[in-house]
Amino acid sequence: xxxxxxxxxxxKLTQSMATATFIVQSPTVPCSGKVTISVRKPTPSVQIPxxxxxxxxxxxxxxxxxxxxxxxxxxxxRNKITKAVGLEKLLxxxxxxxxxxxxxxxxxxxxxxxxxNSVSDGSHxxxxxxxxxxxxxxxxxxxxxxxxxxxxxxxxxAAFQAVEKWLVDRAVLPIENSLGGSIHRNYDLLLHHxxxxxxxxxxxxxxxxxxxxxxxVEDLKRVLSHPQALAQCENTLTKIGLSREAVDDTALAxxxxxxxxxxxxxxxxxxxxxKIYGLNILAQxxxxxxxxxxxxxxxxxEPIIPGMEKPFKTSIVFSLEExxxxxxxxxxxxxxxxxxxxxxxxxPLRNQPLRASDDSxxxxxxxxxxxxxxxxxxxxxxxxxxxxxxxxxxxTFLRVLGSYPVDTTMI
Length: 411
Prior knowledge:
By secondary structure, the chain is an alpha+beta fold. The protein has twelve helices and 19 strands. The strands form five sheets. Strands 3, 4, 5, 6, 7 and 13 form a six-stranded mixed beta sheet that branches. Strands 10-9-11-8-12 form a five-stranded mixed beta sheet. A four-stranded antiparallel beta sheet has the order 15-18-14-19.
């Protein structure tokens, strides 16, 4: 393969690099046939309200574009244009979404302008998180979207599906922890689902030892919590001499202790979980490392328009052919343009974990991997666009997961 120098980097550094004509575009969703309008109003139920009168109004207007075919052609054409303009204005002014007759009734996704406004107060948004009330993920959802309606989901996959099925507007899910590392399940789900990363939020994790009232530390024999929380409090729990039992969520551990009125069992969870389930806080900040921060991703059905007015981060996933120096070349497209990488994660490629070598003299097999990369640049920047064009030259697969503002608040 012949490599050509890229015009945006030093020619001396591009002898082994190349550019391609790859253009990253946001997907569009066509709309055709009879249309309906759905009206979304706040409600604790997941059911989406329907208002037939508004839906009928638009349906009649749309159908009128095909009426009166037996009259004068010029008058018909003029009438159709007039009615079409009226329909277009009606739809532009309407706060509701226009969808095909074969799909469910859904509210219109927020534009980039509406998204910016919604981040400030989070009002009128339903945000899914994994866990039960009192979970750290609930606190992250409320930090990302203040005044939102936080909707608990039992599994990560359920939160993804809730957004895709329009049961909620957003999802806030953990992706990595400063002590425990990456949450691999959510990396896999990012590729399996078609949601977009529209933001990030970082939350300080402060574990507490909880128990029912009148229960003392010396009365405890075991403790319940999420496996990572138990690992993060290893030294403290060892000193107390408690056996560990893992459950799906820290808040769920608190809920079990409270509802079952356990006297010999405590829970490692947040202080908010103690308030919700009426438990007593026996000890605070029992984590072994005080620098315990979890990074959460904010997910939506539609991407946001990247900007340059504030620090942005872009997340991508790609795969490569096997060969010497291929990963080095892939990462070099960013280094040559002074783009800083903040995260790189490899995950085995599902459905094709092993591939035979292309070398006829070598019958060995090797693993196929997907590489998840976060870099500090907006897709609105020319250097980011050129870097991905360059990467496409030797990547067998490339997808932009999102370009979104960096969480600079930290805590």
